[in-house]
Every structure is written in C-alpha cells, then in structure tokens.
Amino acid sequence: MYGLVNKAFEQMVRQQFGADRWDAVRKIAGLEVELFLNMRHYPDEISYRIVDAMSQELEIPANELLRMVGRYWLQYTAAEGYGHLLSLSGTSVKEVLTGLNQLHTRIHLIYKHLEPPSFECTDISDGGLTLHYFSKRPGLAWFVIGLIEGLGQRFHTPMQIDQTQAREEGANHDIFRITFLSTTL
C-alpha cells in the first residue's frame, strides 16, 4: 500500500487519541519508518501490522478501527489535496459508488503501482444499491463500510449498510446492500 494509507492511520490516531498513542503504536508495530511518504509504495504487511498495533494500544477491535479509518479517509485525503478527485466522481453517494472503478483509474495515473480493489453495483434504484467489493487484500471489508459511511456523511445521506456476503466466511468477494433512508440523493 502507498504511504498515504499509513499516514491516514497515523493522523487519525494522533488527532483522536494523541501523539503519545501513535508513538506507542509505532513501537508495537516495530516500525523503523518515522515518516511515511504519500507516493512511496510500502509492503501491505506494514499496514496490517499498524492495524494490529493500533488495536492492541487503543484496545479497540481491528474491525472497528478499520471502520473508523474508512470514515476518516475522505476528510484526510481531501486535506491532502485529493478532494477534487472525489468531487469529479459524483454529487451523491450513488454516483460515487457506481463510479468507484473510474475513480481508481484516475488515481492510478498518480500512483503507478496502485493495485486497487474493484467494485460492481447491482440492483440500483432510488432506494439503494448492492455493492460488490473485490480485492486481493483480505480483511478490509470494514474499511469499505467506513468509507461508505463517510460518503453518507459527506453527502448528507442517511443509510443502512448490511453485509450480505463476506469473504472472511469463505465467499469469493464481499457484498453490501446499501439502503438510502432518505430520497435526497
């Protein structure tokens, strides 16, 4: 994963729990790197170690931390100068979710070694949609849930997210049913 992801972990911990807690996370994770560079590609194993260390230090289950980081991701990447890419992707949760693969194509122009997940939307209606999430990286479904929740906050769209199929339970990909609780999309 790119340094931008690891920096998001760091900034969320620093902002919500304090710099001393991030220092403890770094020690638990055995990180030798003091500063992650946005454009540098790091082994995925480092990101997984950070999440495990965050869980230990903060005494929060890893799934909930991934969800928190997913929600945080949108504001963090906007502050890092990537907000315009999201703005180009749509003006509603539905538009952004149905355009996620195109968003990743744009991001790939910046991050040459990007290995993004892919998404497919089915059962699209005014009331919601079904999101299929395919990734080579295991265990990130809760990050996706957090991202979807973050989109709901950004576009002021209350919603319910139900995971109907889980890769962790042997399925070949994760599926989420997203129901919009308001007709304002």
Please describe what this structure looks like.
With 185 residues, the chain is an alpha+beta fold. The chain has two domains: 3-60; 91-180, Alpha-Beta Complex (H-NOX domain). Helices cover 52% and strands 16% of the residues. The protein has helices at 3-17, 19-29, 44-58, 62-88, 93-98, 100-108, 141-154, and strands at residues 118-125, 128-134, 159-165, 174-180. Strands 1-2-4-3 form a four-stranded antiparallel beta sheet. β1 and β2 form a beta hairpin. It starts with a helix and ends in a 5-residue tail after the last strand.
Can you give me a brief rundown of this structure?
It contains seven helices and four strands. The protein has helices at residues 3-17, 19-29, 44-58, 62-88, 93-98, 100-108, 141-154, and strands at residues 118-125, 128-134, 159-165, 174-180. A hairpin with an 8-residue loop joins β3 and β4.
